[in-house]
Specification:
This protein has about 325 residues and is mostly helical. It has helices spanning about 5-10, 30-50, 60-75, 75-80, 90-95, 105-110, 115-125, 140-160, 165, 170-195, 200-210, 215-225, 235-255, 260-270, 275-295, 305, 310-320, and strands at about 55, 230-235. The chain contains 17 helices and two strands. Strands 1-2 form a two-stranded parallel ribbon.
Length: about 325
Amino acid sequence: MKKWIGRLLSGSEKEEQAPEDTEEMLDEEEQDAELRSLNKEVDATYYRFLTAAAGYDASKELQTRILDGVRMLVHDPGSAAELVPRVPELIPKLLRGLMDENLSTAELSRELSADPVLVAEVIRESNSAYYKPLTPIKTLEAAVMMLGLNGVRMLLARVALRPLVKMQVEGFARHALPIVWSQSEKCAFAASMLAPGMSASVFESYLAGLMQNVGLIVAFRMADRHCEGGRMPGNSDFGLRLLNISRQLSAVIAAHWNFPQEVADAIAHAGKPDTPLAEALAHGDRVSKLRLLIDADVIEEDDAFVTEGLDNFQRRCLGKLGDLNA
């Protein structure tokens, strides 16, 4: 992999020493360009992994037809949302009820206890490798204490969007859906872990991470109408354009489903982050894709994407995402 980040930070060996007052750091515009360039490299690698054996050299005409179809759905979110299961009404209602930061553990447990399925989910989550309790947790109240208010919110959001995984689809979408959902979950966790350092909302960062790939799932279903045999255009340039348009589609679907506007805006601008929430999402997306690529043996732990592309905290976050697989 390219070690261009190190070269950018250290400068060319052939250049003269920069004046003392300008050699400290890249200016903000250059750093933004650096981040966008890195994200593009990671996205291109991720797309090639996602298409893998299903990718082929599709005609320019077919590529344009697919991209134009997805672009049209950006302006018709109602039709786009019909291509994926709708979020169950119960979950958003519960989430709205949990917006009170002063909600006690007892009150929170009471809110959840009406649904046995949610009770089982909360207890199971509290015993997961991610939380690592010293002894098995068996009661709802103990589970709620372990997860905390944000942990419960995150779990409910995940349950709300889980029908996406169980959706009956054919073609390339069937192959890609489990991978895309896995990346969504990892992105949500990564974004929520990185959020405090960027002064972004932990829960909204998590929600944005879960939602950001909904448009991509719709895009793959759209592509399956044009491609035969479960195939997909495999070149990186097409993939980057598809990921970018799909992000815009995710944003309009999120708004259509009445998710917080801040979440929809963060998804729309994650490719060029201009708010703390969009920045948390952009970094979380990159870290989660690297985790997926490492776990699939596409890149190594010591790849330049990791050693030069992530800071110390982001590398710790990358390691923590490994617990989600346990």
